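Reopening this ticket.

The earlier resolution said the output was attached, but the attachment link was broken on my side. Pasting everything inline this time so it's all in one place.
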Amino acid sequence: MKIVTLRDIAEQLNISVTTVSKALKDYPDVSKKTKMQVRELAKTLNYRPNAFAVNLRTKESKTIGLIIPVIVHHFFSNVIKGIISQAEKKGYLVIILQSDESYTLEKKQVELLLSQRVDGIIISLANETAKYNHLNDIIAQDKPLVMFDKIAKIVKCSKIIIDDRKAAYLATQHLIDIGCKRIAHFRGALLPQNSIDRFLGYKKALLDNNLPYDPALVYICECGDMSFEEGKKNAIQLMEDHDDIDGIFINTDLVAIGAMTALQNLGVKIPEDICIVGFSNWFMSSVISPSLTTINQPGFEMGKAAFKQLFREIKARKKGKHFEPKTVVLETELITRASTKITV
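Inline output:
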């Protein structure tokens, strides 16, 4: 099918291309009759504006880039929904890329998005990312950059986060409050800031309650693979290494559910023998048996906040206004369920 242009409309109505363009944009110096004729013919011919030409003229692509470590994770899928819900209201297309926790791939994806002249980029860093030149390149090209969840503190850009340290402290304190004395921690990879902060929150809660911190009770998910199988493997290893554990704080719900499955297969009763707290409030957390106590991480709200901040910076940049990077901290809460409820 032939693409209809402004010239096609102009020739059929025997008017200039400029008049057609003005009529479609509702310029006051074009008569109402001409506007009506142009719009009716444009509708009949199924005319669509040339987005590329519009972008060149306005210096906007009306697209943004989103780079996330994994798409299938419940938390990140909610973030995507939050971002898209706001982007659609403002007429933006979201290009979604998955880094698969790879620094090399993440770097290539940033280069790709910049080459596509996106108006801004939202990113949650890969577990492998320890160098930030590719992120500073975004800023150097005067493109708005917003990080969320897994961030780099030293990169000067806006960030949408939760207080991971506070949330982890709350989770561990809950285990202590219900009587746990030997609490293990399944943490994420060593690099991501959120993994570091959750570990520090766990450790501080122990020390504040005069409980010894034992590094042997901290199990790292290899290569940041926060999976069901990783949870099973760590739980089995934990039971082989220590027979006096009565609580576990686990970095994500998916790992926690894997751990609970393995423990139950070993004859461990939850919560009678071991109490467990997860993190993120994945939808499966409420339907497994026993249901999982967890920290509610507001993925949808984080996505909405990330786009809103990016949009503000895009508009400021378009107007030539300076904007200071902003850090937005969203609230979390402990959702208490059966995995920590001990009945007397």
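Reporter confirms the inline version is readable. Residues 164-297+334-340 form a domain with the Rossmann fold fold (CATH 3.40.50.2300). The longest helix spans residues 299-318.
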